[in-house]
């Protein structure tokens, strides 16, 4: 998007002293600097005007309520397909059209709001804004035409429904999804050459098959001619690449002469294993290349915004420009209004290392990163039993119990108990011995929880961030509920609710999930998956967009062609899924009648089945029979877009994200915050907060932060400590960005804004980049 970020930082607010009082000018400069810092903190690249009115509108534009509202209207707009014909929950056309007009009004209002904070030249050059406006106009035209035709009982197609994901993609809040689409767009040229070579191979083998088998009079299992039509051969061999029709497609030739199996083996090796692997390699290589280019842009844009903020607030002290401590405090409070006083004081100690009363440029540029690192203020707490009965809780026997619970052997013993319990769950529970053993295991688990609550302060043990402790306790409660319910149900002989019994069985099996809690490496892997979860949602949005477009097209093309009847019905119409064209077809024989495009939910299920690719050729063949053979192109197109392109990009993303996040879990990263906490002697390591290593009972609490030196600090704290909430970053993009930023020299200004926006993957940069060469 050339030119999309050029206004911010170029038109800087510099009001004349004669026009506004100095205090008002200072406040406006502070708001402008805070806007730059906030954009750097959240990696926003929204160009905005720097007039006082535009800055206030920009703050309102970025307010969380506005973002929630726009996402609400996007969800409403997308969900209208559930209520429009063909509908899962039918509503009158007037109701759905009014709802859509309301959504379009909200989108237009958001666009006008964006135009108010963006320079006009930048706004009209931004492709996103043009797409949104064109989509709004086309949707209104389609609504008018469709409503007019419906008024005279003429059925038409609501073609604009397929354009609804445009709003999800193009609003500034969806920059992650746009970045993914850019990765796909940038990867397409290289994939195209591989795909053309792949199709050439399929065509070559199709011609071979036509010459080898076309004139031998072979028949398929259905009694149809075998490999006599070139188009059918191409389709069957394309399906064979996905292995969905293997070995069925080979059997007529193989039964005729076993030597013909060599043809299919050769085809499978070349096209399934070699070409599909090449697809993944090309996608992965290009994805990494363009991802690094995007991250490089983000890193430089972030540096550029922080320099702009510094230039607004800087004053000259001696020979260097700095930001005074008071201004720094006000800036941090504006950017992060909910930051606690101890947290703010800690960040200031890091930024103003020498306690000089000001922050230099190098330390100021780290402010956005410091605000992104979550620091927890914790207060040392005593166990309630120590207050209620101190002599008993501090007795030798009590201390022995506490040491036992804190020892690693205690965890090992319960690991063995869990594994033994897994064996017993797999055995026949109708055996009285097995039934009594369930109660024994449950009692041991309850004793474990009680011992931990006796050893560790309860509010600390069930703290907000003690995920595994909550998980462990909830699993034990579920096991207790399951065991009691199972005993009650067995005692009531007349009770035969299969659903309740299923729930009981699932709750009992969930007990085995405690293995994840007990084995450290399992916890590392699961935690890594949780960390990359937010970025996985980006691809969830991408898949939603593609599914929605294909679902709308499928509903318009195939709705009503296949109908589902109760499986117990044996009428001729029910046996052919309500369409005589499916008589004697594999689609009807396999009772795939519920796989249809008669509503949005059914369409999504069909598309999910197509993504899995098993039996997808039967689905394609069935819908081709009820419409036209050209309908197979719809299913082939879906396979190319989703399975070959998007799924491979998703695999590349998961590989990259997991490698980065998993390697970070195993590394020892010490930030400036951690070092300062250690220097002040008020730190608690994250490892000490884990189950089994709680050396102190702690609870999150906001307290004062005062004192001058380290000793006085410890006295004034009265139990106040700090720790980094996590050594992991929120997203993989943020981690990669920080890895790149570590290679940028702190004193360097960086390239100009135009040069940053014109970066390309072909631009090479050294480990410690020289920005002139990089640009």
Automatic annotation (TrEMBL):
Coiled coil spans: none
Recorded superkingdom: Eukaryota
This protein's UniProt keywords: Membrane, Transmembrane, Transmembrane helix
Record membrane topology: Multi-pass membrane protein
GO terms for cellular component: membrane
InterPro entries associated with the record: Ion_trans_dom, Volt_channel_dom_sf
Subcellular location: Membrane
Main location, first listed in the record: membrane
SUPFAM superfamilies for this protein: Voltage-gated potassium channels
TM region(s), chain numbering: 64-83, 89-109, 130-149, 191-214, 226-244, 264-287, 409-427, 433-455, 467-487, 499-517, 529-553, 604-626, 633-662
GO molecular function, one term: monoatomic ion channel activity
Ion transport domain span: 66-289, 407-663
Gene3D superfamilies: 1.10.287.70, Voltage-gated potassium channels. Chain C
Region annotation Disordered: where it falls in the sequence: 1-24, 746-775
Protein name: Two pore channel 3
Natural source organism: Lynx pardinus
